[in-house]
Amino acid sequence: MNADAKKSVLRMIPYGIYVLTADDGRGNICAATVNWVTQSAFAPPLVVVGVKTDSGSYKTVKAAGKFALNMLGKDQKSLAFTFFRPADVTDGKLSGQPYRKGATGAPILIDAPGAVECKVTSIVEQGDHHVVVGEVIEAHFNRPLTGRPDAAILEMKDLGDNVFYGG
Ligand SMILES: Cc1cc2nc3c(=O)[nH]c(=O)nc-3n(C[C@H](O)[C@H](O)[C@H](O)COP(=O)(O)O)c2cc1C
Q1: Does any ligand 1 atom lie closer than 6 A to the CB of residue 34?
Q2: Is 21 touching ligand 1 by the criterion CB < 6 Å?
Q3: Which of 44, 69, 92, 143 keeps 20 to 30 A from 109, CA to CA?
Q4: How far is CA 148 from CA 77, 95, 110, 157, in A?
Q5: Ligand 1 pocket, 29 CB below 6 A?
Q6: Which residues of 41-60 are buried (b: 16+ CB within 10 A; e: fewer)?
Q7: What is the pLDDT of residue 90?
Q8: How many CB atoms lie within 10 A of CB 78?
């Protein structure tokens, strides 16, 4: 296989940008910017997320058995960069961002336009990222949307010419 072709062709896949959050109820709260996300079934409503196995988020999501996907808005590039690093909770904020606890206990970022909460139904343990399958059990709108919902999401291509995750 041609390594350059593999990299470039895989980078043709378009991605939205999300903040994956979870709280394991034992003092571990995580938040990580992720892009390897898609819906994978209508009934039940399933989403899948590729999560790095050596990350704090992987450990916390696995222990919690639940997670939230906070959708970042078109204008929230700086929020994406905030959660490329491990998150901390100080003064009731998550890396400086206001949040509330969702039904699953996972942090819901108040400034994100919307979020879904999921219970983990299985984890496909292959490769350096495992595929976490989640059933959507709650959905939140933090502010009204106008136009197509998928026009409101921050995308990988909005992060700059040299930012990629994939390839
Ligand atoms: C552009 C970009 C996209 C990312 N997408 C993912 C992803 O889809 N899955 C993932 O596990 N990590 C992804 N990461 C890495 C996480 O953001 C990073 O590992 C995490 O925030 C580290 O914190 P943690 O150790 O608390 O999880 C991405 C990083 C960048 C720069």
Answers
A1: yes
A2: no
A3: 44
A4: 19, 30, 21, 18
A5: no
A6: eeeeebbbbbbeeebebbbb
A7: 96
A8: 8
pTM of the model: 0.98
Query: Is the CB of residue 136 below 6 angstroms from any atom belonging to ligand 1?
Result: no
Q: What is the pLDDT of residues 112-125, one digit of tens each?
A: 999 999 999 999 99
**Helix, coil or strand: residue 152:** coil
* Tens digit of each residue's pLDDT (9 = 90 or more) over 118-153: 999 999 999 999 999 999 999 999 999 999 999 999
Instruction: Report the nearest-CA residue for atom 2 of ligand 1.
Output: 165
